[in-house]
Structure formats: C-alpha cells, structure tokens
Amino acid sequence: MSTRAEKPLNVEEFLAWAEGREGSWELYDGVPVAMAAEKVLHARVRAEAAFALTGAVRRAAVACEAFMSGLAVPIRGDLAFVPDALVFPLPSPPPEATTIPNPLIVVEVLSPSTAAIDHGIKLEGYFSLPSLAHYLILDPDRRVVIHHRRAGEGAIETRILHEGALTLDPPGLHLDVADLFGPPEA
Questions:
Q1: Residue 13 lies in a domain
Q2: CA distance 59 to 57
C-alpha cells in the first residue's frame, strides 16, 4: 500500500515524514510505501539473522556492527530501503541517526508480497552502493540462503545455500547457514 504525499519526497523528507508513523515504510520513486504486517516466521528469521551476524562480527573481531531492521539504507535521492538486518563498518553513526548509507552486508527475509521486489529493484539498488559486498535473501519456508556477492569487474555472483558454512569476505565473517534461521520448527 502506498500513501501519496503531495509531492514526491526525497530520502530526508521521507525520514521526517515517516517518523512516528505506525508500521514500517520504504521509499520508492519518491512515494512512501507501507510494508505488509509481519508474520511470526518472518520476525523470527529476521531476529535470528541479526543475532547470527552480530555473533560472527564479534568472533571475527572486525571493525563492524550489525543491526536488525529499523534503519533505512538510502539508495538514491528518491529511493530508500529498510533491510531486515545489515552489517556496516565502524565508526558507528551518531545515536540519533536513522540511516546507514554504507552497508557491507544487507539481509532481506522473503515474504510472498515482497519476493519480486527483493529479487529485483532491491538487488539492483543495493548493489548500486559502492560499499555493498553481500546481499543475502533468506527464504524462511525453504530455509535457503540466496547469496549475491560483488565479484570482480562489476559482476555479481550468486550462490544458493541450503546448509553448511557461509563466508562473507569482506569483512571476514564466518557463520553457518542454519544459524541465520534458528532452530527448525517442531
């Protein structure tokens, strides 16, 4: 669902507009778009992915920080996404910051309403950022990671992982695919 503003918004105007509003919002071509209500499985995987990335950052002792959703990633003047989790290099932004302009890793958890966006405009948008090294799309129903990684000469390499080790270098993180999803449901 989108809510038309009187005029297209830039990222700064959007962030001011969205502050204090109910729900989660992203900005597409200057138009605020409300994200669908989150289901338990999506929230669980989002949290597990953030915890797994935080643990990997600590184990690797790299100068990075991991966050769960809530912070916007500006893509261009009229486009901003709010990934489910992200990792960015230190120093940390100020406590009042609402954006992370330089993520190294972004994570999106698939839902039926966002799958085309996650595989399309977000894939292209995130990799338009020079800082981005890895884009992970997590399929919570199938427990599959689609790992897009920046390769040489502007290429993006894709791997599909069902299990096993996942290395995210840079910044030098090592984790297990299962840790991104948490324990299987009983």
A1: no
A2: 6
Closest CA to 133 of 75, 184, 88: 88
Domain-located, residue 18: no
- Determine the structural domain holding residue 75 and report its residue range: 39-181
- Write the CB contacts of 80 (distance below 8 Å, at least 6 apart in sequence): 11, 14, 15, 26, 27, 72, 73, 74, 99
- Structure confidence by residue, pLDDT tens digits, 7-36: 899 999 999 999 889 888 999 999 999 988
Provide the token pair at 85.
Answer: 């989790």
For the record, the structure tokens of 90 come out as 């230190």
Measure the CA–CA gap between 141 and 56, rounded to whole angstroms. Answer: 24
**Is 103 in a helix, a strand, or coil?**
coil
Q: Name the token pair of 122.
A: 């977000």
On whether residue 110 sits in a domain, the answer given is yes
In whole angstroms, give the CA distance from residue 168 to residue 56.
10
In a domain, 186, yes or no: no
The CATH number of whichever domain residue 57 belongs to comes to 3.90.1570.10
Residue type for position 87: V
| Domain count across the chain | 1
CA distances from 72 to 17, 79, 141, 174, 182 (A): 13, 10, 26, 25, 25
Q: What band does 1 get if pLDDT is binned at 50, 70 and 90?
A: very low
pLDDT of residue 114: 87
* Cα–Cα distance for residue pair 79/29, rounded to 1 Å: 6
